[in-house]
Amino acid sequence: MEQGVPTKLPVAILDQDKTPISRQLGLMLESSSTINLAYYVNSELEGESLVRKNDAYAFIIIPKDFQKNIFKGNYTTVSCYYNGQYLLSGAIILKAFQTVTQTFMAGVVLETLEQKGLSQDQALGSILPINTDLHVLYNPYTSYNYYLNIAFMPMALQIMVMIMAVYTFGLELKHKRGKQLLENAKNNVYAVILGKILPYTIIFCSLGFLMNSLLYYKIGTPLLGNFVGVNLIFFAFVIVLQSVGLFIASVTTSFRTALTIGGDYAALAFSFAGYTFPALGMNTFIQYLCYIFPFTSYMRFIVDYAIRGIAFNESQQWYLVGFAIFAIFGVIGIPLYHKKLKKGGYDA
Questions:
Q1: Burial, 255: exposed, middle or buried (Cβ in 10 Å; 0-12, 13-18, 19+)?
Q2: Residue 99: which residues within 8 A CB-CB, separation 6 or more?
Q3: pLDDT at 289 over 70
Q4: Contacting residues for 277 by C-beta, under 8 A, at least 6 apart
């Protein structure tokens, strides 16, 4: 993944024709940046075995009479078997295989048309009458290095932020030390909350600054927005997560339940953020359900502002409104937490 996308993935090939044309196709496949013909096998069973053992990501078969059928203009098939369980490698190999075979066949057709008397431009016009102009929307740099790191790093941090917030607020309640804690703070619940969570806020905001520095300056993820703005939104993200953690610790009846809900809630965020599968392709209900996770608003803001360079607009304001709503849950949790502290702790 160092170059942004996986390169030179090992592939097995069975050339049943063993002619100059079949060897030419093999050389074209080998020249692809994605495919490495690491195994030349003598039977289909041997190739299938390599794929099943994960020694090869795909198995390509060039059939017998391949050259003969091409010269006669007969239909012929080159097969590519790949493991669909590996979505990334499978999709990349399939794309490279299709590109190479289409280019190969275009070259054969081009040569045939030129032999029939057409000029090179006329032959090219017959093969490719329409040019295409493609633009990648959700991974514009076609780099999985950028695309995945920008989501996985904050995802891992947000799970830790959420778990630590629930753990910090719930630990005193678990050990029935709530009354003592309130007495030490002279019955000031705000002093208790700040004293418990502020050190972790500083730690996680510092980790977020290091994470963003690594992403945009070390790894080289394109940054079209402002670095200070990116960090400010992450700092707000940390506070929002801790607010939700306070709410969860305050409304649950046991420490174990609080940690379970907090961990599950944070872990599910990535699946519902619409990052691996676009939210626009989901059911309408799921599209709105995505926003019950702060991670959704954070990631969409970061992709729009930092990666795409879209200036702060009305759409991004709604992401901040989402943050504010989650922060309100923390405000609601303050009197509930105060009540539990007065009581001493959890019931169980």
A1: buried
A2: 32
A3: yes
A4: none
